[in-house]
């Protein structure tokens, strides 16, 4: 049974206590080529290390993935490299990319301390993820500034003010009434 639903990893072992799941995982497929010289697999396993990566909570418990990460050596150029996991893991934050997305959404409506408790990452990291997310939103969300702003009145139950972009023929806002202070 694959409770993780992470396509590049398989589960090697599993343990839990009152608050945490710890799941040992390994990558499914070896690297397809050497990142240094580009040669097709002429690689062998050189060493490995365990790396803790936090993931989405399961059944209200924090989840830590104990990743068995392998280092390979290339027979062609003699160089070594760690297998790449950046499709799934954010190395800088030591957590899965889907956990970052979860924290981003949660950080708009909950306290950093509460999220920190839930996911098992420190509050400072939660705050940094939130700050990066807000900066990204500010860069990508564009507010419309029409060349011609239309201000008109429309009767929907009572007279209401409509604000439109005349060139694009789009509605920008429909105000609850026609009072000027709105
Ligand atoms: Zn190589």
From TrEMBL:
One family name in Pfam for this protein: HTH_Tnp_ISL3
Domain Transposase IS204/IS1001/IS1096/IS1165 zinc-finger: 31-77
Domain Transposase IS204/IS1001/IS1096/IS1165 helix-turn-helix: 89-133
Protein name per its UniProtKB record: Transposase family protein
């Amino acid at each position: 049974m694959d409770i993780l639903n992470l396509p590049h990893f398989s589960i090697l072992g599993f343990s839990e206590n009152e608050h945490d799941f710890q799941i040992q995982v390994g990558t499914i497929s070896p690297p397809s080529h050497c990142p240094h010289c580009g040669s097709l697999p002429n690689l062998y396993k050189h060493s490995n290390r365990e790396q803790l990566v936090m993931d989405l909570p399961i059944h209200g418990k924090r989840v830590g993935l104990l990743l068995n990460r392998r280092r390979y050596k290339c027979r062609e150029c003699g160089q070594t490299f760690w297998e790449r996991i950046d499709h799934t893991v954010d190395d800088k934050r030591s957590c899965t990319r889907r956990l970052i997305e979860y924290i981003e959404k949660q950080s708009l409506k909950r306290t950093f301390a509460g999220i920190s408790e839930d996911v098992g990452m420190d509050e400072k990291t939660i705050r940094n993820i939130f700050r990066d997310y807000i900066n990204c939103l500010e860069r990508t969300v564009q507010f419309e500034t029409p060349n011609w702003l239309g201000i008109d009145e429309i009767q929907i139950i009572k007279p209401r003010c409509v604000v439109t972009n005349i060139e694009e023929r789009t509605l920008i806002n429909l105000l609850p009434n026609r009072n000027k202070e709105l």
